[in-house]
Amino acid sequence: MDYAATTPVDPRVVAKMTSYFTDNFGNTMSMHHWGREAAEVLEKSRETVAGVIGAKAGEIYFTGSATESNNLAIKGVAWANREKGKKIAISAIEHDCVEESAEWLKREGWEVNKIGVDKEGRIRMEELLAAVEKGVIMVSVIHGNNEIGVVQDIGRIGSLCRDRGIYFHTDASQSLGKEKIDVEAMKIDLLTASAHKIYGPKGAAVLYIRQGVKIEPWLHGGGHEKGLRSSTVNVAAIAGMAAAVEIYEKEGEAENRRILGLREKLIEGILGGIKGATLNGSRESRLVNNVNISFAGVEGESIMLRLDMEGIAVSTGSACSSKSLEPSRVLLAMGRTPMEAHGSIRFSLGRWTTEEEIDKVLKILPGIIKDLRAVSPFKL
Amino acid sequence: MINSGYSEKLLKHFRNPHNLGKIDSADGVGQVGNPVCGDVMKLYLKVKEGKIEEVKFETYGCAAAIATSSVITDLAKGRTVEEALKITKDEVIRELDYLPPIKIHCSLLAIDALAMAVGGYFEKRGLKKPDGLGERMEMIRKKDAVKGCETGE
Question: Dihedral (C-alpha) B128, B132, B133, B134: value to the nearest 10 degrees?
Answer without folding.
Answer: 80
